[in-house]
Amino acid sequence: MSLTPLHAIFALMSLFTVGGAVGVVLNRNLIYAAMYLVLSLFGIAGLFILLEAPFLAAVQILVYVGAISVLITITVMVTRCVFCKEPPPRQLTLVAVMAALVMVTLGFVIMTRFGGLTPAADVPADSIEQLGVAFVNPQAYLVPFEVASILLLGALIGAIFIARDDLPRDEEAVGGDDHA
Amino acid sequence: MPDLFTVIDDWLVSLLTGWGASGLILDIILSLIGSLVVVGYLLTLALFIIWFERKVVARIQDRIGPNRVGPWGLFQNVADVLKLMTKEIVIPSGADLIPFLLAPVIATATVLMLWAVLPFTRNAIGTDVSIGVLYLAAVSSLGFMSILMAGWSSNNKYALLGAFRAVAMLVSYEVPLILMLLIPVLLTGSMRINAIVEAQSIWYVFSMPLAALIFYIANHAEVARSPFDLLEAESEIVAGYHIEYSGMAFATFYLAEFLHAFTISALTATLFLGGWRGPFVDQVPTLGIVYFFIKSFAVYFVNVWARGTLPRLRIDQIMDFCWKLLVPVSLLLLVLTVIADKTALQFFSGYSVGGTAIEMLPRSAVLFGVNLLVAGIAVVSLAQQGRRDREADLYPETAVD
Amino acid sequence: MIPLHWFLLVAAGMFCLGLFGVLIRRNVVAILMSIELMLNAVNLNLVAFWRYLAPEHINGQMFAVFVFAVAAAEVSVGLALIISIYRNRDDVNAGDLNLLKW
How far is C46 from chain A (nearest CA, A)? Predict the structure, then answer.
């Protein structure tokens, strides 16, 4: 197997992805963890491009890096929990052994079932158009698409409702008395 | 007459092939050369942009502006850059070094990345990806992280407050911005930037003036310039998230800001003013770059004009303006545009969605009507809201709370 | 071309790291971040299988898009809950949130 620049790009992106994931899991400083999360998600976007899914790569950056990471970072800052006194993890060895076991099992399955597989066919040139059409096609994904939009609307309203600061405030109570 | 850029490209390809490069390696070397040229050009242009802005703002404020270094003060910024380079980068105690120094770099990089898909002429485009517009939206949302990093790592209350304000505002204005980015995509039927430019035999600013206006305002807010510059409101939070930056680190942020302002002008020019289109561009494709920059500087002049004239808004006014005016209006505009376009296409035989300016005329007229309608609705509802507010001020006892 | 199992191994590694993080971290925000890692690993798998096994069908990409939507909803509501919990209890430690525990 000859090494091409493609392999180098893959290696770099995997390094971002896995290295970022290690940083997220092990870093006790949550701001750093959030930054490593950005790195990891960025690496995933790069891998999507290698998989010839540029649409998903752009959405990945827009949704994860542009929105979700910013939300997480702001939450970390707002909860003033950058260096929270997290108690030392219990059962560290047990959990590590378990995760390693899952990894070994997955690795075994991957190598025996999918080892060395190369693409079956080229990506059709109009795959993004197909994606767009499938979203609005009643035979394909119209209903799930609408359900997803309702889910997002529900999440939007729910998040605002839950996070709203509606504790009774003193000045509000005084103002209410005046009007009454 | 052959295109200058095609000639250069052919020459480079033959040169590199002669040196033994081929396939992917050739592509990578060519992309590298291309991006270095564009970035070098933009960084040089930034000096001119800043000079332009200082001159225009000076004229607006009845001053002369820089006039000492070089003819008309043209080299003032070179002198400024040299001064900033020799200055020390002060790193506050308790600052988080790596994010602190990384933030300005990311801010500049995200702005430069936007130019990868902007066409200077028909052929001179970094890469004409099929998801061009989505790429623009994705890359411009990368900038938030640099602001948060700068605000947090400075270890300064004002910096953090400024960063929070900035992100709250930028995320809000991203909504109308992306909704209005959809309009050219919708009218063209493609996300490729070059396809959007080529479809504008009638510029979209004429068929969709309201969309262009909202896009421009949202973009103006994205670059956080007056009247939207509250994240560096000196009287409230000193200088926002770049309060602790000095020397070249500050200069990098400054550069990112000015380049971003010019980039959004170029974006508006490309998506709504027909980009490189202009007379004789079919015969002499190289002329496109001249038209592109003339249009970009025209939009940039409006940007500087607004910056020099309008006073700063409060944060609640800015948020109200976005969520209570821009977002509903752009949603309404988007939906009505789709409905009007599809209905007209269904029922009128002369209705064409592509072709020359004459063929596009009926479509532009219909879309212009939709814009007028939506603008009318917005103005009427604003007027009613204003009347209710005034009545509530005059007769507080009858007001319904 | 890069063989399929490289992508799958990266995704599996990311998934296991996420799993490890969910089990080992006590801070709710950190747990949420680890869940994001796991969701992304799943996405990578979906897209890799789509590319290598059935590029002519769009379903793999489609599922990834729905994972995006669900992840966005999950994060926004989750973080709202965390902020609300922090307001009420001044604490975002998963071990201390035991009001419903026998």
Answer: 11
| Sequence ranges of the domains in chain A | 1-85, 89-116, 125-180
Q: Is the domain defined by A1-85 classed in CATH 1.20.120.1200?
A: yes
Q: What is the pLDDT of residues C13-35, one digit of tens each?
A: 999 999 998 888 888 888 899 99
The pTM assigned to this predicted structure is 0.87
CA distances from C79 to A149, B147, B162, B171, C16 (A): 20, 20, 22, 17, 23
Q: Count the helices and strands in chain C (H runs, E runs).
A: 3, 0
Which ranges of chain A does DSSP label H, i.e. alpha helix? Answer: 5-26, 30-50, 54-60, 69-78, 92-114, 127-135, 142-163, 170-179
Instruction: For chain A, say whether C35 makes contact (Cβ under 8 Å).
Output: no
What spatial distance separates the first Cα and last Cα of chain A, rounded to whole Å? 82
With a cut of 80, say whether residue B218 has pLDDT above it. Answer: yes
Alpha carbon distance A149, A58 (integer Å): 19
User: Considering CB atoms only, which of A4, A5, A66 is closest to B142?
Assistant: A66
- How is B55-68 classified by DSSP, letter by letter? HHHHHHTT-----S
d(C-alpha A21, C-alpha A13), whole Å: 12
Distance CA C32, CA C79 (A): 8
CB contact under 8 A, A179 and B401: yes
Task: Answer yes or no: are the C-beta atoms of B311 and B353 closer than 8 Å.
Answer: no
What ipTM is given for this predicted complex? 0.88
Residue B181 burial (10 A CB sphere; 0-12, 13-18, 19+): buried
Q: C-alpha A58: how far from its chain's center?
A: 13
How far apart are alpha carbons B248 and B88 in whole angstroms? Answer: 8
Domain positions in chain B are 87-394
Q: Which two tokens stand for residue B313?
A: 């808004």
Joined tokens for residue B347? 């029922």
Give the tens place of pLDDT for each residue, B356-388: 777 778 888 888 888 889 899 999 998 998 888
